[in-house]
Amino acid sequence: MRLYVLYPMLVVVLLATIGCDRVTKRIAATTLAGGPDRSYLAGTITVLYAENSGGFLSLGAELSPWSRTAVFVVGTGVVLVVVAVGLLRSRPDLWSLVGATLFIAGGASNWIDRVTRGTVVDFLNVGIGPVRTGVFNVADMAILGGLLVLMAAQLRPSGRP
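User: That's the sequence. What structure does it adopt?
Assistant: Structure tokens below.
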């Protein structure tokens, strides 16, 4: 696919992912904060309001505010810029571009929360019985989905030498 067609499509994926995450977090903050958890599909999906001051599964939440800023604002910002620059400078295949774009979009949206709020809004939890995920959001799904697409792109056979 030609780059002049591909890059605008990737920008659409980036902006749509960030937009979807921002909208769902706003809805969660206005409709779930201070209210009871809501359970669907016999408890398989739980919708609740949580603010996460740490990273994945609240790791780092107990760090001092200065340390959290250094790790989750400065560190994450640097990683996102490095990934984006690496993406633009390399010649990856379509699936690697899509995976990296999803990863960057999810990371950027959570980064926006950290810069503007100091915490990330999470609101989804899934599982069966006692086997449950941590509380997460749309950006987290984009990050995980992007990493899975990147891994699949790297593991599939390639026609390149």
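The chain has a mean pLDDT of 92.
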